[in-house]
Amino acid sequence: MDDLNPLQTVRAPGRPEQGDASGRAFCQRIVRVAVRSLYAELVLYPKPGLVSKIDNGSHTDMTAATFVRSLFALRRYFADITRAGMLDAPFHVLKQLGIDAEARMLRATGGINTHRGAIFCLGMLCAAIGRCRAHGDALTPARIGELLRACWGQALGAHSVVNGEPVSHGARAVLRYAASGAREEGALGFPSVFDVGLPALHRALAAGRGMREARIDALFALMAHISDTNVYHRGGVEGALTVRRQARAFIARGGTAAPDWEARALASHRSFVAARLSPGGAADLLGAVCLVHAVTTR
Ligand SMILES: CC(C)(COP(=O)(O)OP(=O)(O)OC[C@H]1O[C@@H](n2cnc3c(N)ncnc32)[C@H](O[C@H]2O[C@H](COP(=O)(O)OP(=O)(O)OP(=O)(O)O)[C@@H](O)[C@H]2O)[C@@H]1O)[C@@H](O)C(=O)NCCC(=O)NCCS
Ligand SMILES: Nc1ncnc2[nH]cnc12
Question: Which terms in the Gene Ontology molecular function aspect does this entry carry (predicted)?
Answer without folding.
Answer: ATP binding; glycosyltransferase activity; triphosphoribosyl-dephospho-CoA synthase activity
